[in-house]
Amino acid sequence: MSQKYGTQQDRDKISYKLFRWYIFNWIISSIIIIIPISTYAQNWEISYIDTSSTSKSDTRIKLDAFGNPRIFYRNNTERVLMHAFRSENVWFSQNTEIDAIFKSFRIDLNGNIHGVGKNTLNSNILYYRFTQSDSLIDTIAVSDGGYSGVDIALSYTNDPELAFSRQGYGDSIFYSIYENDLWITESIGSLPPYAGDVKLQLDGDICYIAASSYGPPGAISFFSKVEDQWNSEVLSQGNIYGLLGFAIDTYNIPYIAYDKDIPGHMKTLNVLTRPDSIWINYSVDTTGITLGSAIGIASNSQSLINIIYSSFSQSSGVTYLKYAYKFGDVWNIEVIDSSTSISYGGGLDIDHNDGVHVAYIKNDLGISILIHAFRAAPNTEIRNGNQPIQKLFDPIIGVYPNPFNREFKVVFKLYREDTIRLDLYDLQGRFVYKLYEAKIEDHRNEFQITAEFDNISGLASGVYFLRLEGEHHLDIRKISYLK
């Protein structure tokens, strides 16, 4: 049964407790402003979704092909998986009647949801598929010890692929692919004890896996599969706590976010990246705050890395939900929310306008609230020796016909002289085709470009992103192709 949340009646029921929370939050925010690079919820839109009295945890969020957020979380009171979605700016929450915990999920081009989690009665891994008409649950048994981390990704053909780690009897990492209605699993390597988090990313035919071990001594391991050959390397060792976030940007550069102990300095947030052949480590948050429940990381269309993480201050007893992004040579950190208890499951997603969507649980004064937070993308791009460049958005006036069959027209107007490029990307942000590139000196008039697709072989019907980009301009529009 679906339930509607976020009404005025719901807010009235908790108004007195929220008033007390605001007073508490005001006191805490006066402490936060001593950190010069942090701002407090300045750029974020906060929406309450589920304000029922049930205990909640393990939030995960993804956007569908139309940019609508879908959230899964666990109702601990009723021991069931919940699904929250937004329709016409109203949030709804639905009981899936499944006693499980989602660890990760993806949405295919047909709107089907593919998820992976664990059985609450044992250590087996479960795969879920929710369609418009039915659901499927498969069990992937893990013998000789329980799993530690698990993640899911979808191939070009919407087939699920999994990566997971196992603790005990030799900590190992495994890779599974679903073929001919069967799960085929292989062991791809060993991990230092004890196996921690695992993240999986696909880039065409290349598979990337990042894994953590929280030791001692602890390590970050990186696996890649090219032409059926697995390669592995250990990137960082020593005092690894075990939390992990992993993303691939539009230039196929990997970014791994993790937390690490520094003696006498508590835990810090770090990012490993490989722009060329050498891995580079960045220290993002060194404020001496113990990291909390999870780390989420994603790249937007400008290859700007977005990181969401929770942290706990032992001195004040307050948990903070934070957002970090790198602008020029500086990591900027914003505090989204704070509370005596915030549960962040590690999921965030980026929409086609590079807006950031986050879901989390806040527990204050006996109220467990599911919250959706949204932030528009920082109007910046990292270019030219790490110097920030201001972008001018929305130069595209129109795209028609949309949906299109053989060709479409793009009408745009530039705000200044620029060399622009028009490209087509799929919904996973992968480059598909270059449509146009030219230097335009006359920025006073509108321009029209006709994009023809007769020479593109194998372009599948579906939704794509049209990206117009120059040194000073950027616009992204969603278009549909029908054969």
Overall description:
A hairpin with a 5-residue loop joins strand 37 (418-425) and strand 38 (431-440). The protein has two helices and 41 strands. Helix content is 5%, strand content 60%. The protein has 483 residues and is mainly beta. Strands 1-7-6-5-4 form a five-stranded antiparallel sheet, with no helix packed on it. A five-stranded mixed sheet has the order 2-27-26-25-24. Strands 3, 28, 29, 30 and 31 form a five-stranded antiparallel sheet that branches. The radius of gyration is 23 Å and the shape is globular.
Q: What are its keywords?
A:
five-stranded mixed beta sheet, mainly beta, 41 strands, 483 residues, globular, 5% helix
Architecture blueprint of SSEs:
Layout (H helix, E strand, L loop, with lengths): L1 E3 L3 H6 L1 H18 L5 E3 L3 E7 L5 E8 L5 E7 L4 E8 L2 E6 L4 E8 L5 E7 L5 E6 L4 E6 L6 E8 L5 E7 L5 E8 L2 E9 L4 E9 L2 E8 L5 E8 L2 E9 L2 E9 L5 E8 L5 E7 L6 E6 L4 E10 L5 E9 L4 E10 L2 E10 L2 E2 L4 E3 L5 E9 L2 E9 L4 E4 L3 E4 L1 E2 L2 E5 L6 E6 L5 E8 L5 E10 L6 E6 L9 E9 L2 E9 L2
Number of strand segments: 41
General shape: globular
Mean pLDDT equals: 78
**Total helix count?**
2
What would you report as the Rg, rounded to the nearest angstrom?
23 Å
Low-pLDDT windows of residues? 1-40, 380-389
Please give the order of strands in the largest beta sheet: 1-7-6-5-4
| Helix percentage | under 10%
Broad structural category = mainly beta
* Residue share in β-strands: over 45%
Task: Give the biggest beta sheet.
Answer: 5 strands, antiparallel
End-to-end C-alpha gap? 38 Å
Q: What is the oligomer described by this structure?
A: single chain
